[in-house]
Amino acid sequence: MCGRFNIAQTPGLSALIDSLGLAVSLPPARYNVAPTEPVTLLRREGPGEARWWLTPSWAPALDQRYAMFNARCENLATSRAFRGPFRRQRGIVPMSSFLEWRREGKGKVPWLITNGDEALAVAALWDVWNGGGAPLLSCTLVTTAAAPAFRRWHQRMPVLLAGEEALRWLDNESPVAVDDPLFAPVLKFPLQLAPVARAVGDTRRKDPSLMAPAGPWATLDSDR
Asked: What gap in Å lies between CA 18 and CA 14, rounded to an integer?
């Protein structure tokens, strides 16, 4: 699952975007980004801002009764909402870190998760809805089962694309199989994690200081 993330203008994020061969400037810094808010979407068809909550092109209206901000990779080829975008409308949402809540004692503690470069390429699907006048570009983040080491934080994790995986994912002329190794529940690179202030639970709070570690960092080693 991925329900909150950050974009900080780090050198690593700039290098990630350059590696994709896209003529796009560094996205604006955003913190505590939540579903339904605008996010930067990278795609071969041209980068843009997308609403983080997929609205299929065939939807009769904007509808938030169904959680469409994440798409389980196991359902990409069979879900009516996802199978079309999976074939021809794949993109990447860049981020510097994301948040997960872990139960500790009687409550849940938010944890900030990133890598050493503070640059993560998360697999996304997009669609365009024309039912409200102006076209609406929206997207969903693809998730997979958690790698064993990550299960202490959550049973799901975003599909983090590494190296040539990102280029293949953006190439909508070439299909990606549902059993492609890029969906494997493994850590493709080390992750660093630290608890942060519970105030991030309030989606109205966008202060970057809320992302300061509130405890020691932990490191999860790569499975590769």
From this structure: 6
Residue 1: pLDDT above 90?
no
Task: List beta partners, residue 100.
Answer: 111
Using a cut of 0.85, tell me whether the model's pTM lies above it: yes
Q: By C-alpha distance, which of 18, 136, 142, 178 is closest to 69?
A: 142
What separation in angstroms does the CA of 8 have from each of 28, 63, 118, 150? 8, 30, 8, 23
The tally of domains found in the chain comes to 1
Q: Evaluate the CA torsion angle 187, 176, 124, 81 in order and state its sign.
A: negative
Supply the range of the domain harboring residue 82: 5-220
CATH at residue 176: 3.90.1680.10
The per-residue pLDDT for range 118-141, each reduced to its tens digit, is 999 999 999 999 987 789 999 999
Q: Are 161 and 92 in contact (CB under 8 A)?
A: yes
Q: How remote is the C-alpha of 84 from its chain's centroid?
A: 19
DSSP state of 75: G
Q: What is the pLDDT of residues 82-116, one digit of tens each?
A: 999 999 999 999 999 999 999 888 889 999 999 99
DSSP 8-state symbol, 185: S
**What is the average per-residue pLDDT within 198-206?**
96
Map residue 207 onto helix, strand or coil.
coil
Q: Which helix (H) or strand (E) holds 23?
A: none
For the cut 80, the answer to whether the pLDDT of residue 47 exceeds it is no
